[in-house]
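Narrative of activities, Objective 1.

The group set out to show that a structural description can be obtained from nothing but a protein's sequence at a throughput compatible with the screening campaign. Below is one input-output pair from the validation batch, recorded exactly as produced.
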Amino acid sequence: MLNGVVFSRTTYAIHHQNLGQCQFSSSSLKTAQLPTKIRRYATRIKATQSSDAHSHDGETSGLADISWENLGFNPVTTDFMYVMKFSGDGEFLSGGLQRFGNIELNPASCVLNYGQGIIEGMKAHKKHDNSILLFRPEENGLRMKIGADRMCMPAPTIEQFVEAVKVTVLANRRWVPPPHKGFLHIRPLLMGTGPVLSLTPAPEFTFLIFVTPVGNFFEGGLKQINLVVKEEIHRAVPGGVGSVKAIGNYAMVLKALIEAKADGFSEVLYLDSVYNKYLEEVSTANIFVVKVEERLVSVEDLLDADEVFYTGNAICLLPVGSITYMGRRVLYGETSEVSQQLYSALSNLQMGLTEDQMGWTVVLE
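Output recorded for this entry:
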């Protein structure tokens, strides 16, 4: 299948040989170091809702007032969100469900003034038996802990994180799209909500989860997208926070993304900030290049690639049809063999269409 993967921070090089074994190596991901009991947190769980969720059960147990055929990627007001506050003594207090709505922030809150916050992104899929599937939620909890440490923030334990996700999804289960109609996007947030004036970590922190149904990116198979390389704007810098999901990582590329879309491109491909020649990533996703050696991937390597695709939580996997660099457009064939096989393997596992032999999926009933 794939015989080796290189990680140059978040750029991946794949040497495609045959559909045999798949081996991954990474210097940046920590999941391989996790104990087995954490990597395989659970396979089938019945989660309970809080008393607040039960008190509105009659109001929220019906069908969602939404057209599943016309789901886009804009936030939808669902029923509940999960909120947990930092106790101040090194731990988070027990959180719970609240009705979805606006939150209050002190104008001096650290997240507003200095950007002390991180995000996560996850999916929930509904099966034909009405059970709901989560995909490796403990890994998202681990990534939040790693990111929180870099941003000088406390974080929920992995167990607290996963339980909060389960409770939030079940409380909003009527908003999970039917099979093949989309998925429930899960957005955990960790924010420094306490007030500060000088540049210092917040004295108070809030962990929050909200969810919204979103539609599929494409119907009837994978659709190729077109990228443009931006040399003057960079996604991350050495010593920065590009390796964690800090909230400030995203606003900084809006200018490049808006300009690219105005010129007819789907997304932006960024280069490293040191040499301005090695591939880094797309705005919110990782980039893969098929048919190169295991090394740093330069932008010139795109000229000889058999395939290029990128992956992210919401998009799953998208093949690249073309990349434009310094006015030159490189086209890739319409046949995306590796992309299609990887997309089918991943999406079928996430939707419960194939047997999970890795213990990666969590079933909510």
